[in-house]
Amino acid sequence: MNVKVSLIGVFDMLKFRDLKKNRAEMIASAPAEPLPSTDRANVLAQRLHPKVQQLKIAEIVQETHDAKSFILAPDTDKGSKELAPFKAGSYINIRTELAGSVARRTYSLSSSPKEALEGKYRVTVKLKEGGFMSAWLHNEAKVGDSILATEPGGFITHSSIRDCRRIVGLAGGSGITPFMSMAKAIQEGSEDFELTLLYGARTEADLVFKADFDAIAAGCDKVKVVYVLSDEAKPGFEQGFLSAELIKKYAGEEPFSVYVVGPGAMCDYLDKELPKLNLERKFIRMERTEDVYDAGKPVDYTLTVRYRDEVFTIPARSDETVLTAFERGGLAVNNKCRVGYCGFCRSRLIKGEYHANRYEKLRLGDRQFHYFHPCCSYPMSDMEIEVYSK
Description:
Blueprint: H1 8-17, H2 19-29, H3 40-48, E1 53-64, E2 67-74, E3 91-98, E4 101-108, H4 113-117, E5 121-126, H5 133-139, E6 146-149, E7 166-172, H6 177-188, E8 194-201, H7 210-219, E9 223-229, E10 238-239, H8 244-251, E11 256-263, H9 264-273, E12 284-290, E13 300-307, E14 310-317, H10 322-328, E15 347-351, E16 354-356, H11 364-368, E17 371-372, E18 377-379, E19 383-387
Parallel strand pairs: 7-8, 7-11, 8-9, 9-10, 11-12, 13-19
Antiparallel strand pairs: 1-2, 1-6, 2-5, 3-4, 3-6, 13-14, 15-17, 15-19, 16-18
């Protein structure tokens, strides 16, 4: 009878037995020069994921009657030399102080990844009625002003592992900005996928980047743009709302993924339309640019906030998020996405009640131990909160 005996385990044990001796020999034979003062992996990590980016406004461009683009560059006066790179579709969270309050808002980058390597970000902001940051940017910000920004991040970026090669983009309002970045990246060759964009607006005058999209689509067969107007009928434009029927008309027969970026009302409508496409859930990605909660007549509440070893008492309103109350109270609580996805503002509810939007992403353990996301939660009573973000 032939018997085969494996010696793999024996050899592994011999290696383990000699491990200490081999390490000692390697240490003894190493050169006497000191180790580098910085590790290359740490340098790369800092380049890709800076704790903060010191930026300044280099240029302001009026795009439409209610939209402006802000070209941001490294603030060399504060030691900043370069911008963190990003994938097309990413956003940054910018921060400044306004009237004694901390103001932080998230804006998708409308520039391409290549432009970041050249030292330029572009964010495009529509003026929002009652907006805190948008009003300052539109009415007061000027070239040379300094602001802080987080590293880029995002939920709407293309992955060849997860997504189809063909992407159908659905954009409304300021949700057009990440698709401008994608279209540029495809044109430049830094991204390799096909984009069919359905861009919805009230009127032609409300369309941002129309000339830019038309120029890209004319010279790049991987980008196609369809404009959809809800409040006027014009030749060359679709009329109505973004819908499953319209997606089927332009998506073609090949498999496709859907990216949705736009205001809450548009996303709520598409939540009912997209199931008609019978797509796997992984092929649908949605990012809300805003989520307005109808709380009825505003009610005033008080928040007791345990933050950085101190206790603060600040006012809050039922029609504003808990995070907005933090900022108006001068508390610089970490946040990025501001729609309940990223988890940066994750805090613990000690006492009180709140209403959270249904898109909030919470782990089961978070729910069990009363963690929540202040960025998408509206107070429904006085609250006591412990904040962990630094």
